[in-house]
UniProtKB/TrEMBL annotation:
Pfam families per record: Acetyltransf_1 (PF00583)
Occurrences of domain N-acetyltransferase (ranges): 6-168
Top-level taxon in the UniProt lineage: Bacteria
Keyword Transferase tagged: yes
Name listed for the protein in its UniProt record: N-acetyltransferase domain-containing protein
PROSITE patterns linked: GNAT
UniProt keyword annotations, A-Z: Acyltransferase, Transferase
Length: 168
């Protein structure tokens, strides 16, 4: 008999503290040294505990990775924001607390979002990652994502290159 200590489920309001912590720690780990310090700090300050509490009451598509009863990461998804593309779905954010990275749990989150998009009859998937975020780009490449487009994201006076990865 196996016991699944990590599973994907919809977010609940009581997840707000764990998600606020996962978000901050994941963003610091992923973007410190890439996004300018002041811009990063401002983004983190906006996504505080109160923001998460309010956001979880809106019922937007948000799945969490539940690890032994605690929300260790999350994924948000929906219809693709990019016009004129054959990819109907998009993962907007996928973040996992650094403690849980490198264990295949991010793949569980990714697969959970793909499954839900499929249930919504949304075909194809796109996700953007900053080009300098080598861990994220490597993750999406390992999952079979194909780089299909490039863009730019501005953070204060700094503009960073981003890459769109896609799955049919």
């Amino acid at each position: 008999m196996s016991v699944d200590v990590a599973h994907i489920r919809p977010a609940r309001p009581k997840d707000a503290p764990a998600l606020a912590s996962a978000y901050e720690d994941a963003w610091r780990g992923a973007y410190q040294g890439i996004i300018p310090h002041l811009s990063l700090e401002r983004m983190l300050a906006r996504r505080n505990l109160r923001w998460w509490q309010q956001s979880l009451h809106k019922r937007a598509p948000l799945l969490v990775l539940d690890f032994r009863g605690e929300a260790a990461g999350y994924v948000t998804f929906g219809r693709c924001r990019m016009s004129r593309t054959p990819y109907q779905g998009e993962i907007f954010e996928l973040y996992l607390h650094p403690t849980y990275q490198g264990l295949g749990l991010g793949t569980k989150l990714f697969d959970g979002a793909r499954l839900r998009l499929g249930e919504m009859r949304i075909k194809g998937l796109l996700v953007w990652a900053l080009a300098d975020n080598e861990a994220a780009c490597g993750f999406y490449l390992r999952l079979g994502g194909k780089p299909i487009a490039e863009g730019a994201e501005s953070f204060g006076d700094t503009t960073l290159r981003k890459i769109a990865f896609a799955w049919a």
